[in-house]
Each structure stands twice: as structure tokens, then as C-alpha cells.
Amino acid sequence: QVQLVESGGGLVQAGGSLRLACAASERTFSNLVMGWFRQAPGKEREFAVATTWSGAGTYYADSVEGRFTISRDKAKNTVYLQMNSLKPEDTAVYYCAGGRAGSLGSRNPADFGAWGQGTQVTVSS
Length: 125
What we know:
By secondary structure, the chain is mainly beta. It has one helix spanning 26-29, and strands at 4-7, 10-13, 18-24, 33-39, 46-52, 58-60, 68-73, 78-83, 92-99, 114-115, 119-124.
């Protein structure tokens, strides 16, 4: 299985910004649809954003579109999540996920077979 490692979580004030990173294994990363999900305490894991490594498609949840941006660095085998205008309701554990090319367009965690360990993002009000 592909190895995914998230980093960059922390505590930030409402209205602030944070940048998460997800490093993946070189060989499998190029074959994956990469996405970010989040899970708040007591809630189900929800989709935030996903993209193809080739950049053929990118799609966002309504709750984050316009504030979050996903990007890729092929040389570093890394996907980033730039989070701006953060709100207290963005507080959650954020997970990097990878799926097969056929997962493009999916917002279902079950369609993503590779997961990182998660990184905590806390937004204070």
C-alpha cells in the first residue's frame, strides 16, 4: 500500500491561514487521485477537496470552495492544502487520501484506499 504522511496542522485564529502537506511514495503517487478529508469530533469523515496528479480535474466541497486550494509538487511527491479564511467549524483532523484514477469525482471516503495518519487543525474563535 502507498504510504501517506500529513504535516502542517496546528492552532490558528479564525480568519487565519494554514498550509498542510501530504507526502506520498514516488511510484504510486503518480497513479493516484489525491484528496483531503476531515473529521470533527463526533462527526463522520467528510470530503474537502480532491485532484488528479496530472491536474486533469479538481473539485471542492461547497463548505471549503473559495477558501481552500489544493496543489501538487511532482518533484517532492507532495500534495498541499492551503487553507485561508479559516473558521472555527473547520476544526477537525485532516486526512490525506489516495485513490485509483477511477475515483476521480468521488466524495466518498470508501473510494479512497490509501490514508495518512491525520493532522489536527484547530481554529479558535
